[in-house]
Amino acid sequence: MPRSTPQAMLLVDGYNIVGAWHDLKQVRDREGLEEARRRLVEALMGYSAFQGFDTQVVFDAQYRDCPSNREVITEHLCVHYTDLGQTADTYIERTCADFRHDIRKFKQRLIVATSDRAQQLTVVGYGAEWMSAQQLANDVDHIARRVKRKQKDNRKSSGRFLFNSLDPIAQQRLANLRHGKLEE
Question: Which one-letter DSSP state was computed for residue 67?
Fold first, then answer.
């Protein structure tokens, strides 16, 4: 079955978000940039799937001596490292400019998450929506709490009866007894 069109494409200015989220900034300072990137990607995995967003986290590779690359993390999330000498801002701006002429714009929203004021004005000028780093943090946290609450409710309802806490063999034995079948 083909994947349905995501309701929105979310472009995340990776290092901008790492520098804006308090907990990621602490991770970056204590454990390094790689760990902060990993935690950002991890936080966005569930959020993107829950929201049905096609999310691209964009990191600058302007100081690395390697070509751009794209890592697909899940069907809803990928990480893009820009080309040598290219910033995440220019990648995001080019994507917004291209999207403006794309037919998808009639069926899909384009959202850019960054707290860079100049970037905000540019992407809005191209017709994209803007989300601040703080708004993204709040949304990610809200969705994570909703998912946990839903999982907790599901565990409560399925664990309401003692039968559900038994292993499958014991459940089968009880079912056999209930139907009058004696065990050999």
Answer: -
Q: In terms of Cα–Cα distance, which of 137, 14, 23 is closest to 77?
A: 14
Name the amino acid, one letter, at 87: T
* Interatomic CA distance for residues 92 and 130, integer angstroms: 12
Query: What's the confidence (pLDDT) of residue 124?
Result: 93
pLDDT of amino acid 64: 64
Q: Could you give the CA distance from residue 105 to residue 85 in angstroms, rounded to a whole number?
A: 29
- Chain position carrying tokens 């100049």: 118
Q: Crossing angle of helices 22-31/33-51, nearest 10°?
A: 150
Q: Under DSSP, is residue 32 helix (H, G, I), strand (E, B) or coil? A: coil
- Closest of 73, 75, 67, 90 to residue 38, by C-alpha: 73
Instruction: HSE, CB side, 13 Å, CA atoms: give it for residue 4.
Output: 7
- Paired tokens of 60: 């600058």
Residue 158 has pLDDT above 60, yes or no: no
Q: Which residue do the tokens 């935690």 mark? A: 39
pTM: 0.76
- The Cβ of residue 107 has, within 10 Å, a number of other Cβ atoms equal to 9
State mean pLDDT over 34-56. Answer: 93
Asked whether the beta carbons of 51 and 143 are under 8 A apart, the reply is yes
DSSP H helices, 52-106, are: 88-100
